[in-house]
Design goal:
33% of the residues lie in helices and 20% in strands. The protein is α+β, with helices and mostly antiparallel strands. The strands form six sheets. The protein has a six-stranded mixed beta sheet with strand order 1-2-6-3-7-18, with helices on both faces. The chain is globular. The protein starts with a helix and ends in a 14-residue tail after the last helix. 47% of the residues are buried. The C terminus is likely disordered.
């Protein structure tokens, strides 16, 4: 327990806060020209020294996709007989979405009670700093890690990870490992240590009803001219009803696996709306085990200054959040066929895919190993989620590299990531460092048998 005491002391002494302040100071916005320069400096001045201090050989790689930034890889090989761990983090952050409270500067780490405010504190600098620190503590305490380490940093996660899958495919030997352990996204809630195994995918769906060159007087034309806004409302209702229930079977997964249902049986979702979504499913099953279709935006004419006219055009953007096992290969034609069959052939459909859904099977031996190691040091049960609700490039590690994936998040749902006043909770950071240190120490002491192909294990 001496090692875990050192982890707690590292946070309590202010050392982790001081280190994080240095990371937050780099405005590494991936879709800004100045941000690209900051990313390079972050690689050179922060991450390369951190990986070198872990005994890694560090290399930087050009992204095969010009839309994305470079990759950084650190490799420490102790023995071919030992398991190999791949860690992951992303150096980029989002740009500013508005002013921060109390006049805070997003690039200056500030503390207010248990909240550490700054851009990237939760997504993802604070999270990968905790893992780097845990690795450093294990190495210092043991004199060796007891496993081989590979650490991959990308610089475009906030813009969809362009080039990451291609890079992983090109560099399979460089990134070859037995398991991925990484941190991103939120835990179930601030009080619940969480392990999740993958991510839901996301597809944006654009619906456009462009019928007339302009508005037409609602008195002179009402009743004889099709209204694009009314048409769009009806079209959306045929896809997802007014209670959030998906109406198109092809947009749903074929089943909810029993192992997923069992894993979610004791997961409590804070403050769910029990009148929303499929009533046959629990809130946890709806959020982590099923698909949802959400309306993100809806527009026709000027809602703030309406006039007595039938609008000429109405548009909406929806999003399908889907779990692994869903067939999304024909989403656009399926929707067109569905809408035409219900009298809405005038509604045009476009789709834009984001991260793909993927997850490591609950029955994979790495999962039980990690749960055991974490539960031994946590003072309450660690929640297991087959996947979290949002999107991550998890499919790169499961589908391209063939790894079991274990995500140990060091943030919580109320962290304001991507928004003003993003923050890391000090108690979550403290517990996160203890859990990460314990997990890496367990990997060096008693790893499970090598399991290189999680797809071989059923749900």
């Amino acid at each position: 327990m001496e090692l875990l005491g050192q982890a707690r002391a590292h946070v309590d002494s202010g050392a982790l806060f001081a280190e994080l302040a240095g990371l937050v100071a780099y405005p590494t916005v991936s879709d800004a020209a100045d941000g690209r320069a900051a990313i390079q400096a972050y690689f050179d001045e922060v991450l390369t020294p951190a990986l070198t201090a872990l005994g890694c050989e560090v290399t930087q790689h050009v992204n095969p996709d010009p839309a994305g930034g470079p990759f950084l890889v650190g490799v420490r090989l102790e023995s071919a007989e030992l398991p190999t761990l791949l860690c992951y983090g992303h150096a980029d952050v989002v740009g500013e979405a508005g002013p921060w409270g109390e006049g805070r500067d997003p690039w200056t780490l500030t503390a207010d009670g248990d909240r550490w405010y700054g851009r990237g504190t939760a997504d993802n600098k604070g999270q990968h700093l905790i893992n780097l620190t845990a690795l450093r503590l294990v190495l210092a305490g043991r004199g060796r890690l007891g496993f081989n380490l590979k650490f991959l940093f990308e610089t475009g996660e906030e813009i969809g990870s362009p080039g990451l899958a291609e890079f992983a495919a090109q560099e399979k030997e460089l990134l070859a490992a037995d398991v991925l352990i990484a941190s991103d996204g939120p835990r179930l809630d601030a009080a619940t240590p969480t392990l999740f195994l993958g991510a839901r995918g996301g597809i944006r769906i654009g619906l456009d009803v462009d019928l007339h060159p302009g508005g037409h007087h609602s008195g002179n034309w009402g009743g004889v001219l099709r209204n694009p806004a009314t048409t769009l409302a009806g079209a959306i209702a045929s896809l997802v009803d007014g209670h959030g229930r998906v109406q198109v079977p092809e947009l749903l997964p074929p089943e909810l696996p029993r192992s997923v249902r069992e894993a979610l049986a004791h997961v409590v979702v804070p403050e769910p709306d029990d009148t929303w979504g499929d009533p046959r499913l629990t809130p946890a099953e709806r959020l982590y085990g099923w698909n949802t279709l959400e309306v993100l935006s809806l527009a026709a004419a000027d809602v703030d200054r309406p006039v007595n006219a039938i609008p000429g055009r109405a548009r909406a953007v929806l999003q399908l959040r889907y779990v692994a096992g869903t067939d999304v290969g024909r989403i656009a034609p399926v929707l067109r066929e569905h809408l035409a069959a219900r009298g809405f052939p005038m509604v045009s459909v476009t789709t834009e895919a984001g991260f793909r859904a993927s997850r490591t099977p609950v029955g994979n031996p790495w999962v039980s190993w990690a749960r055991t190691a974490l539960n031994e040091v946590a003072d309450r049960p660690v929640a297991l989620l087959p996947n979290f609700g949002g999107g991550l490039p998890n499919h790169v590690f499961t589908d391209v590299l063939g790894l079991a994936t274990l995500w140990l998040p060091h943030s919580y749902p109320g962290c304001n990531q991507h928004a003003p006043d993003e923050h890391l909770l000090a108690p979550v950071a403290r517990e996160g460092l203890v859990l990460a240190t314990a997990l890496f120490d367990a990997l060096g002491s008693a790893p499970p048998a090598h399991q290189k192909n999680p797809s071989g294990w059923s749900e």
